[in-house]
Amino acid sequence: MLNALLSASLRLCSPLVAGPTTTQIKIKSKQGSSVVFTQRNWKAPPSHMATAAAVAKVGKSVHRIFVGNLPWTVGHQELRGYFREFGRVVSANVIFDKRTGCSKGYGFVSFNSLAALEKIENEQKHVLEGNYLNIQKS
User: Which residues form the RRM domain (predicted)?
Assistant: First the structure.
């Protein structure tokens, strides 16, 4: 029971893809038993995030969408991989909380062609890891 209570209260997330650091938390109960939780914090490599300068170089041909209701397990690569089937992805960024490192549940994807946006609009439902995505032009 102690394990279930503690694991529910300590929601651990590691949504990104590179550079692990490990944190261990040891909790003792009144009865003397102890539980150790290990959390891996991941830091995103800069190569997966498009900079403002990179997007500016492409110019006016960049078409950007907002993607909401992302699962917290989805990182930059998974988002890019899902939208790759619709056209060339210029950038795919998931927004993370700076304090906790967990996903905020939304992100942005940029394409270099309007045809990719039309393909996305033509598909009725977008499902990623069991979540129906909320997609809007931005």
Answer: 63-138
Structural domain of 116 = 46-137
Task: Give the predicted TM-score (pTM) of the model.
Answer: 0.60
Q: What is the pLDDT of residues 46-78, one digit of tens each?
A: 444 454 555 455 456 799 999 999 999 999 999
AA identity, residue 64: R
Residue 43, beta-bridge partner list: 18
Q: Are residues 96 and 33 in the same domain?
A: no
124 and 66 housed in the same domain? yes
* Cα–Cα distance, 138 to 120 (Å, whole number): 14
* Cβ atoms 92, 84 nearer than 8 A: no
Q: How many domains does the chain have?
A: 2
Both 15 and 61 in one domain: the answer is no
Distances (CA, A) of 136 to 32, 68, 78, 81, 85: 53, 8, 19, 18, 18
With DSSP H G I counted as helix, E B as strand and the rest as coil, what are the percentages for the chain, rounded to 5?
30, 40, 35
Comparing 27 with 15, the larger pLDDT belongs to 27
